[in-house]
Amino acid sequence: MSLIEIRDLTKVYQMGEVEVHALNGVSLDIDQGEWVAIMGPSGSGKSTMMHIIGCLDIPTSGSYILDGVDVSQMVESQLAAVRNHKIGFVFQAYNLLARTSAIKQVMLPMQYSRDGSRVPRAERRERAEEALEVVGMADRINHRPSELSGGERQRVAIARALVTNPSILMADEPTGNLDSKSGIEVMEVFHRLHEGRGITVVMVTHDEAISADAERVIRLFDGRIERVDRNGLRSEVESQKSKVGIPAQLMSDVGVVTPDKGSERC
After folding, report:
1. Under CATH, what is the fold of the domain 2-253?
2. CA-closest candidate to residue 100, choices 164, 171, 170, 156
3. How far does the chain reach from its first CA to its final CA, in angstroms?
4. Please, is 117 exposed, middle or buried when counting C-beta atoms within 10 Å of its C-beta (0-12, 13-18, 19+)?
5. pTM of the prediction?
6. What is the mean pLDDT of residues 104-126?
7. Rounded-to-integer distance, Cα 213 and Cα 122, Å
8. Alpha-carbon distance 210 to 198, whole Å?
9. pLDDT tens digits along 155-204
10. Residue ranges covered by each domain of the chain
11. pLDDT tens, 21-64?
12. What mean pLDDT do residues 9-23 have?
């Protein structure tokens, strides 16, 4: 079942008198419980794609259905509610508060519940402790970021993303600031969450080794899906670049939406 359904998505930025086309007619489905990596060179549109999937921005045109709801033209207050309830974010730079303990960092997203009322402090602390335990930080809950290694800081950030029980875990270069050992440890946390909890993971990365962990790799170029790699097998498909003459079955086998049949996967 598709958790994310994107159709003919475009994003145009106005830079003075110049229009910058960051996305050019992207169509894509992502299933519930799937792990997808988004890759591409600088200027390919991967950050824009991340922002739209994460409801940090809206497209210029096209549709984005998230868990059955069209979020493509929501106003900021509506997008904020979607982010709070359905999406957990993990950033390259951790985005932790410098003078705040790990436990308090993880409690922050629960300041308000879905109906706008405050979650009781005792419940917030209990859920934060559980999230920190899941990422292997149960013995560091009172430490501030300056007292933690880079890998530990990222695990706190993952716990913070998890604590609201999101449908999607969005990760933007989650190992980009880490050494190889810490990077492996952080990726192991993602594996446990994906396999053990069935969380949908959407990860932007430039690292081929990191993308190899994903079930599918969406490769962008000039705002279009250039090709899709599935299960480590390269599928040479110029999907949104040129669909003319490509059999529909070939397009559907790699999870790229065709104009008439939608997205079908093998």
Report:
1. Rossmann fold (3.40.50)
2. 156
3. 13
4. exposed
5. 0.81
6. 80
7. 37
8. 19
9. 999 999 999 999 999 999 999 999 999 999 999 999 999 998 899 999 99
10. 2-253
11. 999 999 999 999 999 999 999 999 999 999 999 999 999 999 99
12. 94
| CA–CA separation, 235 and 121 (whole Å) | 50
What one-letter code names the amino acid at 65?
I
Contacts of 60 (CB under 8 A, 6+ apart): 10, 11, 12
